[in-house]
Amino acid sequence: MMRRFFATTLGQIASIIALSSATTILLFILLLSIFDPTPPPPPWPWPTAYRIATFVETMRSAPDEARAAIAAGARRSDFSIEMTQTPRPCDGLGQDAQKLRSALQSKFGDVMGTFTVRSCSSDVPATDIQVLLPLEGRMLEVLTGDPKADQFFKLTLPLMSTLSFLCVAVAAMSGWAVWRVTGPLRRLAHKADAFGRDIVMESIDEEGPIEIRRVARAFNLMQERITRSLRERTRVLAAVSHDLRTPLTRMRLQLQAGQAENVTAKLLRDIDLMHSMVTSAVSFLSGAFHEEEKEWLDLGALLSTLCDEFEETGANIQYEGREGIPFFCRPNAIHRAVTNLIDNGLHFGGRVIVSASIERGRVVIDVADDGPGVPMHRIEDVLQPFVRLDASRSSRSGSVGLGLSIVKEIVEAHQGQIELRQREPNGLIARIVFPSSAFAPPADARIAR
């Protein structure tokens, strides 16, 4: 269980926070042990001399019954005072004892009176100096020493409490922050796992830090593209399987009839029809035009050449527009899109006019025919895949309703838009509009013609 927790983002970040907090506390304690933050006391022996003189003066002015309590209250690890009848004098005279005696004699001689200072052979350096002075028939014995001799860094309860609170507070706040940050990631992982089992899913909320919002947005777009792709492929299979039944049935009847002189030509015609259907469907699903590299070309020259090629086959087609329009695009894809529009116009009308111009900083391509047109309420429908109208525009052999859908895909891949308009008095105008960024070549660009 713990190994699984530490394998998560939350567990790993929590481990990093805990380790860094522990390291910080250890370094803090080490620095405190090396560099004492408290200010240095006055030099030895002046603090001790002041303390002894103060207590001697207090003991002399206090009543006899209160002196024992005063002596008991003055005891510390490096200072004790007692009233005794038979003291045991020490016999040493070390350097610290001499310094303390000189300080008491020079500064507090009138308070101290007669006194002796000796060094004792004690195992405790903080109480190895003895001060004796008479006080109303008894002896006042003071044991003291240099406090620095027994001083070392100690971890006090307030210090440890402060460090512990700091560590817990940092860990708690960091854990809460990490939980908030990783929450969108957990929900994203749950949605991704559910999407693998159920394709129809709702979009996830784009929340959290900007990086996670970008991941959520990318996931939503991916989910939308996958769903749309699967739906389109299902529609392709349904449309192609339905349309292939007619030529397959006709081929079977022709073979069963056994009319050898007519079977071959009819079979070849039906095979071409089936090939056209399959090629159109596969081309739409593959989206192969996305793999083509973009390059600069003269759009006017491309359209003029395309119209000339159709005219050579006997089509009534004309190009009306300027040449010298630089255009950054995928040439084969644009050729294919315009070809599809011209094919539709020639099939449903008798004459097609192609034009290209620059209007308000945009490239505009119009393909107009004089056919029956499209009802206003069906204009948006015919741009969708596998939609075929049931009147005069639906009788085209081998069509599965993908021509205009492919044109739309190509145009949108170039950041453009396609619009269908009614033409007066009759016919249809397919207008393609590309933004200005598509035909503003750099100074050193070479334009293909």
Helix-strand blueprint:
Blueprint: H1 2-6, H2 9-34, H3 46-61, H4 64-73, E1 79-84, H5 95-112, E2 116-119, E3 129-135, E4 138-144, H6 157-195, H7 210-257, H8 260-286, E5 295-298, H9 299-312, E6 317-319, E7 326-329, H10 331-348, E8 352-359, E9 362-369, H11 403-413, E10 417-422, E11 428-434
Parallel strand pairs: 6-8
Antiparallel strand pairs: 1-4, 2-3, 3-4, 5-7, 8-9, 9-11, 10-11
Helix pairs in contact: 2-6, 3-5, 6-7, 7-8, 10-11
Q: Order of strands across the widest beta sheet?
A: 6-8-9-11-10
Terminal CA distance: 68 Å
How would you state the average pLDDT, rounded? Answer: 75
| Overall form | rod-shaped
User: From the alpha-carbon coordinates, what is the Rg to the nearest angstrom?
Assistant: 50 Å
The CATH architecture of the largest domain comes to 2-Layer Sandwich
Helical proportion? 40-55%
In summary, what is this structure?
With 449 residues, the chain is of the alpha+beta class. 52% of the residues lie in helices and 14% in strands. It has four domains: 2-36 and 153-192, no CATH class; 46-150, Beta-Lactamase, CATH 3.30.450; 214-285; 294-438, Histidine kinase-like ATPase, C-terminal domain (Heat Shock Protein 90, 2-Layer Sandwich), CATH 3.30.565.
Give a verbal description of the structure.
The chain has helices spanning 2-6, 9-34, 46-61, 64-73, 95-112, 157-195, 210-257, 260-286, 299-312, 331-348, 403-413, and strands at 79-84, 116-119, 129-135, 138-144, 295-298, 317-319, 326-329, 352-359, 362-369, 417-422, 428-434. It is built from 11 helices and 11 strands. Helices cover 52% and strands 14% of the residues. The model is unreliable at 149-153 and 390-395 (pLDDT under 50). Strand 10 and strand 11 (428-434) form a beta hairpin. The two termini are 68 Å apart. It has 4 domains: 2-36 and 153-192, no CATH class; 46-150, Beta-Lactamase (2-Layer Sandwich), CATH 3.30.450; 214-285; 294-438, Heat Shock Protein 90 (2-Layer Sandwich), CATH 3.30.565. The chain is rod-shaped. By secondary structure, the chain is an alpha+beta fold. Strands 6-8-9-11-10 form a 5-stranded mixed β-sheet.
